[in-house]
Specification:
This protein has a 9-stranded mixed sheet. The chain is globular, with a radius of gyration of 18 Å. With 280 residues, it is α/β, with parallel strands linked by helices. α4 (120-127) crosses α5 (134-143) and α5 (134-143) crosses α6 (150-158). The protein has 2 domains: 3-93 and 169-279, TIM Barrel; 104-158, no CATH class. The longest helix is centred in the middle third of the chain and has 27 residues, at 87-113. Helix content is 44%, strand content 16%. It starts with a strand and ends with a helix. It contains 10 helices and 9 strands.
C-alpha cells in the first residue's frame, strides 16, 4: 500500500522548507503523491511540480484559504487542482495577501506597545519571501526569548485570545468555493474540528450549508482529528457524496510534532489522492 499527503506548507507561506525541499522530504518519506497547499498563494507550486516530476512523485497544485467565520472557530478551504494562471485566483490571492500585510502592521504595533522589540523587516526576513503568517512572528518571539515555545507565543500573543491578535481580510465561504471552482479547482473543507462546534449535529449542519454552496470534499484525516471524529467524518462524506481527503498539515520546524505523510498514528492512503485527481 502506498501513501500520500494532501495538506502541507512551504516557505511560500508559513512552512519551514522551500517547495522543492518539501517534495524531497515527501520522497524521502516514501510518499507517492503530494499536494502543496500554502496559505493564500500558489507561488510554490511551479517549483514543487518541477521537483516532483524529477523525483517521480505525483503532484497536485493546491491552496488553503481562510474564510469568514464566527469565533472561536476558524474555517479554511483547500482548493485542489487550481490553475495557477487563473486571473480569478490571482485576484483572490492578491487581495488576501494585501489583507495579511495590513494585519502584520497591526500585530507589530500591538507587540511593541507591550514592550516586545520587533520590526516588519524581521518578519519579512523570517518569511524568506513567502506569504507572512503568524508562525513567523512566533519564531521571532521564541528566538528573542519572549516565549519558551511556539505554543506559548500563540497562547500569549498571537492566538484569538492573545494580546496581539489581529484579524486579516477574508472572504466568505460561498465566495471562496465559487472562486476555487472558477479557477478549475475542487473546494474541500480543511480540518473540520477547527470549526469548534459543540457537537457533531452542529458540525453536520455547517457542512450541509457548505455542500449547498458547492463543497466537493472534506478532510477526514488530519493531525488534529481523533479516531472517533475520523469515523464520523467518513460517514458524513458518504452522506453528502463528498470526497474524503487527508493530510498532515505539515509546516516543518514550527510544528515539529507533525510528520509529513502522517496524521497522528494514521497515514493517508493513496486512494484519496487518486479519487481527488480523478474528480479534478
Amino acid at each position: 500500500m502506498s501513501f500520500v499527503d494532501l495538506h502541507c506548507h512551504s516557505t511560500a507561506s508559513d512552512g519551514a522548507l522551500a517547495p522543492r525541499d518539501v517534495v524531497r522530504a515527501a520522497h524521502d518519506a516514501g510518499l507517492t503523491g503530494l499536494a502543496l497547499t500554502d496559505h493564500d498563494t500558489v507561488a510554490g507550486c511551479a517549483d514543487a511540480q518541477d521537483e516532483a516530476h524529477i523525483l517521480g512523485i505525483d503532484f497536485i497544485c493546491g491552496i488553503e484559504i481562510s474564510c469568514e467565520y464566527p469565533r472561536p472557530g476558524t474555517l479554511h478551504l483547500l482548493g485542489y487542482g487550481v490553475d495557477p494562471q487563473s486571473p480569478i485566483l490571482h485576484d483572490l490571492t492578491r487581495r488576501l495577501i494585501a489583507g495579511r500585510s495590513e494585519r502584520n502592521v497591526k500585530i507589530i504595533a500591538a507587540l511593541r506597545e507591550q514592550g516586545v522589540a520587533i520590526t516588519l523587516d524581521e518578519v519579512l526576513d523570517q518569511s524568506k519571501g513567502g506569504t507572512v503568517g503568524r508562525p513567523h512572528f512566533a519564531s521571532i518571539l521564541l528566538r528573542k526569548g519572549y516565549v519558551s515555545s511556539v505554543t506559548e507565543a500563540f497562547k500569549k500573543y498571537l492566538g484569538q485570545t492573545g494580546t496581539a491578535y489581529a484579524d486579516k481580510e477574508t472572504v466568505s465561504a460561498r465566495q471562496a468555493i465559487e472562486m476555487i471552482r472558477q479557477s478549475g479547482g475542487l473546494p474541500v473543507l480543511a480540518h473540520p474540528v477547527q470549526l469548534k462546534k459543540d457537537n457533531f449535529g452542529q458540525l453536520t449542519n455547517a457542512v450541509k450549508e457548505l455542500v449547498d454552496y458547492g463543497l466537493a470534499g472534506i478532510e477526514v484525516i488530519h493531525s488534529d482529528h481523533r479516531e472517533m471524529l475520523i469515523d464520523q467524518l467518513i460517514e458524513l462524506a458518504n452522506r453528502y457524496d463528498l470526497l474524503p481527503t487527508g493530510g498532515s498539515d505539515f509546516h516543518g520546524s514550527s510544528k515539529p510534532h507533525v510528520r509529513l505523510g502522517w496524521a497522528g498514528n494514521r497515514r493517508i492512503p493513496r486512494e484519496m489522492f487518486d479519487r481527488l485527481l480523478a474528480r479534478a
